[in-house]
Amino acid sequence: MDYFVNVTLTGLTQGMIYSAFALALVLIWRSTRIVNFAQGSMAAATTFIALALIQAGQSYWVALIVALLSGFLLGAVVERVIIRPVEGGPELNAVIVTLGLFVAIQALIAIVFGSSFQSFPTPFGVRGFEVGGSTIPLTPTSLYVIGSVLITMALLVALFRFTRIGLAMRASAFSQEVARLLGVKVGGMLTLGWGLAAVVGSLSGLLIAGGGFVYPAYMDSLIVFGFVAAIIGGLDSPVGAIVGGLILGLALSYVNGYVERGSALVSVAALVILIVVLLVRPGGLFSSTTARRA
Amino acid sequence: MAEAHGSTAVSATGTTGGTATTSRLLEVENLSSAYGPVRALDGVSLSAEAGKITAVLGANGAGKTTLLRTISGLVRPVSGRVVLDGEDITKASVESMVGRGMAHVPEGRGVIAELTVDENLRVGALFRGKVGKDEFDRVYDLFPRIAERKNNAAHTLSGGERQMLVIGRALLAKPRVLLLDEPSLGLAPRIVAQIFGLLRQLVDAEGLSVLLVEQNARSALSVADVGVVLNLGRVVVTDSARTLMGDEDLRHAYLGF
């Protein structure tokens, strides 16, 4: 029973990180119909900025905030400078551009920060809490991961639902032309959307790095899982991205924990889940294609 | 709604200067637009006056939609000018148009399907900053049917309700010129009559200037003051709606009734 709880909690924690990464993809897909393959290396770049600050003696929290802010900046600049020229053009152009960016940023990280493995600290312990003399498999670090993703999501929901700028962003995402005719500065909203998405992506990068090692390609496996989570959820739905991430996190954790030599099967399992979901519901679990067509 | 006359609104247009001595709020001068090598508008000139409905009529492909899209900047003209209240807006950005007092309800109505009815209205008022609840209530009073569906997603609305929503949303922008693209499309005649009747009231009461693009020429002429007939991107005739209505040859040749 303890083992089951442990595996489940691990799955939820990992799933939260997948959710965050998937959410970053969904935010960009919704507003610009572009799959941002560079999301992973953008997040890696900001994680390395955080690491440099920590190595220079700054606290984890200062590094976190600087990394998230630089994520915002990076996302906004990427949209304005690199994505804007291919927006609304053939889809393949945007795909190639983000793929190129993915490779370029990863190479740039290696040039600037080196390509060796470096350990990344975590602000909280990884030992379970003690309750009545026995250790439960809930650690401060997993609480921090789950909590920070939940807070970020709550802030995003509040932004989109309750603020004027959030309304303008949604209008721009759903119908650029109508939004422009209503006086919404759509270009600015798209830049803002990419910036926010990159913040969420950066958060997932920082969380997955915590307590482990980072190197220029350390995000690669998260990229795969994040994509699978986003597609399971329907690529169009923020809620879908979150649910998709949690489903994937749990499923992979069970595979890892209960299947013999499961750790070797994790990536395969992710792709099997993807195929099964797409066979049953080709639009993803939370697709809103019918609503869109109406 | 308060009863007033168009003349009060004509004086209101004089506030931003320019050639405000005339009541021609919107002037289109020799406008040409092209999609690649295909010329969709060929030297179109017309004007829309305060307190009047100007109907632009013609068959499919006559250039009606392109005309509106060029006026609001969605399509950039090859040549010619668009002048709003004395100011040349030919090169102005699409986003700036509502701020200048011109609202464009595009073809297919332009409801943002994923947003609720209320959110759609709020998007329409965004550029004005804080807008009082009373203004929203006024739109809901005007269109009780959409008031009932305030919190429903807009894609659940019927065609007529959508048209009411987009007109209400355009009104929240407090425009002086309203561009309407085929509002009657796909609507039952009773709903069309209701919407056109309401439009007439608004124009008479508030001195709004409406440029109404319609394929449904009979309905449009019944509510309009002036009619402009387009054919293959050119103006065939401009005259009072009453005269056009009485010109049987013209009706048969270009208006299909």
Brief description of this entry?
The complex is a heterodimer of chains A (294) and B (257). Chain A is an all-alpha fold and 294 residues long.
Quaternary arrangement of the chains shown? heterodimer
* CATH domain fold name of chain B: Rossmann fold
CATH H level of chain B: which superfamily?
P-loop containing nucleotide triphosphate hydrolases
Class of secondary structure makeup of chain A = mainly alpha
Average pLDDT metric of chain B: 88
Stretches of chain A where pLDDT falls below 50 for ≥5 residues?
290-294
Q: What is the string of SSEs of chain A from the N terminus onward?
A: HHHHEEEHHHHEHHHH
Provide the CATH top-level class of chain B: Alpha Beta
Going by helix content, strand content and strand pairing, the class of chain B is alpha/beta
Q: What is the CATH topology assignment of chain A?
A: ABC transporter involved in vitamin B12 uptake, BtuC
Mean pLDDT of chain A: 91
Low-confidence stretches of chain B: 1-21
Chains forming the largest contact = A-B, 21 and 27 residues
End-to-end separation of chain B = 35 Å
* Order of SSEs of chain B: HEEEHEEEHHHHEHEHEEHH
Helix fraction bin of chain A: over 70%
Distance between the termini of chain A: 48 Å
Number of separate helices of chain A: 12
Please give the largest β-sheet of chain B: 6 strands, mixed
- Rg of chain B, Cα atoms, Å: 17 Å
GO molecular function, one term (chain B): ATP binding
Family (chain B): Belongs to the ABC transporter superfamily.
Pfam families (chain B): ABC_tran
Protein name (chain B): ABC transporter ATP-binding protein
Task: Describe the 3D structure.
The complex is a heterodimer of chains A (294) and B (257). The longest helix of chain A has 31 residues, at 2-32. In chain A, helix 1 (2-32) runs parallel beside helix 5, helix 1 (2-32) packs antiparallel against helix 10 (238-258) and helix 3 packs across helix 8. Chain A has one domain: ABC transporter involved in vitamin B12 uptake, BtuC. Chain A has 294 residues and is mainly alpha-helical. In chain A, the strands form two sheets. Chain A has a two-stranded antiparallel sheet. Chain A has a two-stranded antiparallel ribbon with strand order 2-3. Chain A has helices at 2-32, 39-55, 60-83, 91-113, 140-162, 164-174, 176-181, 186-209, 220-233, 238-258, 266-280, 289-293; strands spanning 118-119, 130-131, 134-135, 213-214. Chain B has a single domain (6-255), classed as Rossmann fold (3-Layer(aba) Sandwich). In chain B, helix 3 runs parallel beside helix 6 (159-172). The interface between A and B is medium-sized, with 21 and 27 residues.
